[in-house]
């Protein structure tokens, strides 16, 4: 069986486009496609609002009866937060069309120039990466739903109510997964292209451990003493290198601009996603801490902890994966500056050195930085900040919550009285954040 071989950029991004259309955030360039997409998205929003209205009628009776008030509050807050994200992300899919259109125009210019430079398109790799990502998302989504299903409902919950609440609670997860995967696809695309440009520049390097730059300077000094000039004789290779450097400079700039457009397209989504992830990681960790102070049977403890661990992994993975991929792409784009500095040698021609100076100035004026609508940068520093902030707020909540410090509490009344302090502290911390 012959495997599908995408020949254009539009064909290579088809899996991600189909996935976005299915969840209601598809992007189409022609007028007819936009009308159909908006109509389909409106139908999804209306259907979801209907299911959400029915679900809210059953939440108090059948859904998430946890061992304390804090647990009920936390998981219901997650439910309603995902509802708000759903109602926000779908319209954002319509609004991001302008930014993605600008990004695609610049990407097509880059693809044309890189094709002329003889670099591989790697459309097949981009296509398969999307297939692998979507397959991984489906597997993780199924595992997540199955693991959490046991702790979501009371035993007497009717099957039709279970189905309604399952759809209302898990559709936002599917939407969040696909939205994050779409953003990461464009980040990964930029990283691959920057790697290709850097590999091309590295092949131009002539400096080796046996022939470092300071030895070349000595040879240039000897040439000056013998001939009175240090200007090398122009050859075809020097001319080709100059043209290559000029082309790489142009493609690098267009890639940075296209990546910025993509970042702007997903900026609101990233801002909301990162903020909510931080808040709920802190809340879930505190709820997990509070469970340890209750005398629960092994079965009840498992039912309580499994959903907590699942949601913590879900929100933590969003922060780790998105920020790590953005950081690696930023580093790859910045590595170009190190390579061209090594190419700046006195043995090269004036034209080649002039291109390197212009390229260096371009890198200084146009750094690649991923942001969440300009509020904070997406990189490894943000991961460190989240870890430190979660730890700080968790310690504050533990101290203010006045949980017993030794042994598990046997007094139910004492714990119920503590719940008011816990809930008030949590509300105060979330509002401050």
TrEMBL record:
GO terms for biological process: chemosensory behavior; male courtship behavior; sensory perception of taste; signal transduction. Keywords: Cell membrane, Membrane, Receptor, Transducer, Transmembrane, Transmembrane helix. It comes from the Eukaryota. GO terms for cellular component: axon; dendrite; neuronal cell body; plasma membrane. It is a multi-pass membrane protein. Its main location: membrane. The chain crosses the membrane at residues 35-53, 73-95, 131-149, 161-187, 266-288, 308-326. Gustatory receptor which mediates acceptance or avoidance behavior, depending on its substrates. Belongs to the insect chemoreceptor superfamily. Gustatory receptor (GR) family. This is Gustatory receptor. It comes from Cardiocondyla obscurior.
